[in-house]
Amino acid sequence: MFKISAYPERHHYENEAKALVEKHPSLKEPGSEKEWYSWFHSLKFKLGNYRQKLSAAGCPEVVVKKRRRFEGESVKKSKKGEVNYCPDPPEGQSPENMEEKRNIMEAEMLKRDPDPQLVEDLMVATFSQRRKEIIGDQPLITEVISRWPALLHERQIRTEFKRMVTKDLLEYFLDRRDGLVPRLLEVYKAAIKTGKKQSLKDILDCLQKDDTNEKRRTAALLGLPHYISGEDPSTVVRMCDAYRETLDETMKGMQLGLLIGYEGAEREAFPREVFEIAVVVEETTLKMWHAALPCSWVSSTVSISSTQKP
Questions:
Q1: CA-CA distance, 13 to 16, in Å (whole number)?
Q2: Is the N or the C terminus of the chain less surrounded, counting Cβ atoms within 10 Å?
Q3: 232-260 confidence digits (pLDDT tens)
Q4: Burial of 6 per CB tally in 10 Å (0-12, 13-18, 19+)
Q5: Do the beta carbons of residue 175 and residue 237 sit within 8 Å?
Q6: CA distance 264 to 272
Q7: Rounded to an integer, what distance in angstroms lies between the CA atom of residue 180 and that of residue 188?
Q8: Collapsing DSSP states into helix, strand and coil, what is residue 40?
Q9: CA torsion sign, 158 to 159 to 160 to 161?
């Protein structure tokens, strides 16, 4: 269980307990309705004791979760839902060796056409060092990108996500998005009827003119900042005329979000023609796509921008 996750969730323990009594019927609890409930608690405590031993031995993934105290202040313990996967360095590898490989990867990314297989191998070899920096030092995102420029590429974003949680980021996002779009639109309509979220009306009005699947996906995503209570939509998604507004002024105050540049003086809740889409982090553009694209492409771009926070 620990090899898969150091901090399993409740249903993971339950599945393991069920599998245990199914494989070994003699371990079933007589008189118990579930027949495995005591094994659920036993596995939970056993893994907790195992984590304590690993913490004393200095296992990075467990130590980073442990409450630390310094200068009389306590640091809040990380939530189990946070992605704090921090594996040990590969056998025979030292921080100096991994730093050398990082330098090679950084130089390779300066080329016009980097070797994708070489970059992939170097990113795999330096994964533990990268996680140690991100989790332990908690640098600014701009600093992470300057040291690990390959993280700006979609392929490496998806691969890095898969290394941490063993899921394909884009497939997972698209599956969940398509399943939630109808429900989100219904929630938006209900919020408008109650008079609480009138800012969503313009977005839903666009669907009456062009009610396609792509438009519905875009409306569902662009409506989230409007619907979330207390969230200023302009801090997450901003739109600007690609030729009339300056980039620096438009990005002012944005910590993490999307900047959508459109063409033409007229636009609705979301523009028909998108000139460029930029991922903005800490008032800095980390990734920009220059193209004349339909606005429906925004629904796919959000899945990339959501991974920029390490």
A1: 5
A2: N
A3: 677 788 887 766 666 677 777 787 788 88
A4: buried
A5: no
A6: 9
A7: 12
A8: helix
A9: positive
pLDDT attached to residue 302: 40
Query: What tokens does 41 get?
Result: 């608690």
Sign of CA dihedral 121, 124, 128, 134: positive
Strand order in the sheet with 237-241: 237-241, 256-262, 273-281, 284-294
User: End-to-end CA distance of the chain, in Å?
Assistant: 25
Q: Name the residue with tokens 């429906």.
A: 296
Q: Low-confidence residues of the chain, pLDDT below 50?
A: 67-76, 78, 80-81, 291-310
Which pLDDT score is estimated for 101? 93
Q: What pLDDT score was predicted for residue 201? A: 82
pLDDT given for residue 231 in this prediction = 60
Where would I find the H helices in the chain?
A: 10-23, 37-57, 60-63, 95-109, 116-125, 127-132, 141-147, 154-165, 169-193, 201-209, 213-227, 247-251, 298-305
DSSP 138-149: ---HHHHHHH-G
